[in-house]
Amino acid sequence: MEITVKSARRYVDEIPAPLTVAGYWGGELTEEAKKLDTKSGGQLSRVLDELKYKGEFGETLLLPLGEQFVLLFGLGRKRGVSLETVRRAGAKLVHEITRLGFKEAVTETFLAEKFGKKQASYALAEGALLGAYEFKKYKSDPEIKKLRLWLARSSGPAVDRAEIVAEAVNYARDLVNEPPNVLTPAELGERAKELAREAGLEVEVWDERQIQQAGMGAFYGVAQGSVNPPRFIQLTYRPQAKPSRVVALVGKGMTFDTGGYSLKPSESMLTMKCDMAGAAAVLGTMRAIARLQPDCEVRAYVAAAENMISGTAYRVSDVLKSLSGKTVEVLNTDAEGRLTLADAITYADREGAESIIELSTLTGACVIALGDKVAGMFSTDTRLGREVQEAAERAGEKVWPMPLEEEYREMIVSNTADLKNVHGRSRHGGAIVAGLFLAEFTEKPLVHLDIAGPAYSERPHPLGPAGGVGFGVRTLVELLSPSPLNEE
């Protein structure tokens, strides 16, 4: 769907459009809907009484009103309503409007009286832009619907910011949804270069020779089994003035993961094109940061590779020397992400990052613990962890703090090398052990977000279709460039 969201200062009944959307909340018409009802001589009220319309969330009722149509949109009960209600209403609304065949509509800004005009405008616009996302690049004859949606009495700056953030999320979704024969590590490097040219970012992409020369033995060990060579991607945003702080973003960039010789079952490979969702989130964030221009310096690092099987692939019992100098015994080749991330985190540390935020589809254990809607957050620094969690709450993404239990560290100590990449045959505490492993490669404040659950959806979800979700972009943008809209 091609959608344009426009802000307007006028009331909903003052903007000419073939369709006017009004809300029904808590069993009664909203103030904007009441104005339409008065203008129609009580026609809306009479129809509602006759049809016993309840206005459950997402329930719609299309009515003719003079030369226009009015679409009543149910917002559900007042109890438990939140900005997420508004965001999901925006996503659902755009599909209902296009299903009815309208190409232009005006809607009231739902629940602005409760949450304030700025926040309600932002949530509604963001929901509409995210909900309209489709990935039809490889369809032979795709049907692309178009919609122009006016938000009555909305905040222009809020709508503008929503457009920037939603575009960044959808960019990340596009990357995740690309087939792995297209989005190889080299192609991901090219996409990063293109992003840098468009956004005015600094960029450097290393090839396999440079990766080896740098001493990234853990990263290259994973990558060496594929005919598609690895790439190490570096993007930098610098503010015009002296930066308030220097933050590194590290994203897992496995463009396809077979599991290597610890081979995955075939059904588990069906979603493995999403194993670079952390990288996609980091690149999407950089796209938004370049436009929002915060006062901090932001550096992004992606170790892009494929985990394949061949005569040159790494094996169980191999020992790899990481960039940090620490050696790692490989006990499971399907625990490859933490090896690539180890070198990326070390590099980010050495380049002068004051804090590091890392995102990865790292463990099935985290999905078992938190399901497919919530990311696990592991932090070595209480203050940074709190910052990330609060940013996620403001952004509308679900992040839950998890422990880095030091008593479990002995589970990754190897008899052969310094460390081992998994804790043996036991599956207990798998997500925690993975976080402890990553923490071995920096002394700087580190937040590890395990997004294995919410990064990819195998069925449609409230803010989009099946496929890449773009999880993490909204949280990182809110962390690095806090929205002024929170201050009414």
TrEMBL record:
Keywords: Aminopeptidase, Cytoplasm, Hydrolase, Manganese, Metal-binding, Protease. The keyword Cytoplasm applies. Residues 332-339 form the Cytosol aminopeptidase domain. GO terms for molecular function: manganese ion binding; metalloaminopeptidase activity. Binds 2 manganese ions per subunit. It is found in: Cytoplasm. Its EC number is 3.4.11.1, 3.4.11.10. Mn(2+) 2 binds at K252, D257, D275, E336. GO terms for biological process: proteolysis. Its cofactor is Mn(2+). It catalyses: Release of an N-terminal amino acid, preferentially leucine, but not glutamic or aspartic acids; Release of an N-terminal amino acid, Xaa-|-Yaa-, in which Xaa is preferably Leu, but may be other amino acids including Pro although not Arg or Lys, and Yaa may be Pro. Amino acid amides and methyl esters are also readily hydrolyzed, but rates on arylamides are exceedingly low. Transmembrane segments: none annotated. It comes from the Bacteria. Mn(2+) 1 binds at D257, D334, E336. The active site is at K264, R338. Its main location: cytoplasm. GO terms for cellular component: cytoplasm. Belongs to the peptidase M17 family. Presumably involved in the processing and regular turnover of intracellular proteins. Catalyzes the removal of unsubstituted N-terminal amino acids from various peptides. This is Probable cytosol aminopeptidase. It comes from Calidithermus roseus. The gene is pepA.
